[in-house]
């Protein structure tokens, strides 16, 4: 099995949230592939707030 890490998707801001972006990352943690959902708020040209959470895949 080949594990690849990196940016999976970048989502455009939704209406009314023009300064907020969502990024889906594929990461490797302790040899296991995980997905992390990163929500970024931008003020001017800089990140002013960032939150993240792991995303579980349902089987």
Written overview of the protein:
- The protein is mainly beta.
- It has no helices and four strands.
- It is elongated and about 35 Å long.
Topology:
Layout: E1 6-11, E2 20-29, E3 32-43, E4 46-55
Antiparallel strand pairs: 1-2, 2-3, 3-4
The total strand number stands at: 4
Rg, alpha carbons: 13 Å
The largest sheet is: 4 strands, antiparallel
| SSE order | EEEE
**Number of helices in the DSSP assignment:** 0
Find the structural class using helix and strand composition. mainly beta
Shape: elongated
Uncertain residue ranges: none
Q: Tell me the strand order in the biggest sheet.
A: 1-2-3-4
Give the % helix.
under 10%
Mean pLDDT comes to: 80
Strand content: over 45%
Distance between the termini: 18 Å
Quick recap of the structure?
With 59 residues, this protein is an all-beta fold. 0% of the residues lie in helices and 64% in strands. The model has no long low-confidence stretch (mean pLDDT 80).
Tags for this entry?
mainly beta, 59 residues, single chain, four-stranded antiparallel sheet, 4 strands
């Amino acid at each position: 099995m080949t594990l690849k890490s990196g940016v999976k998707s970048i989502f455009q801001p939704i209406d009314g949230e023009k300064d907020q972006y969502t990024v889906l990352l594929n990461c490797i943690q302790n040899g296991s592939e995980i997905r992390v959902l990163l929500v970024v708020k931008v003020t001017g040209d800089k990140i002013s707030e960032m939150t993240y959470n792991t995303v579980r895949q349902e089987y």
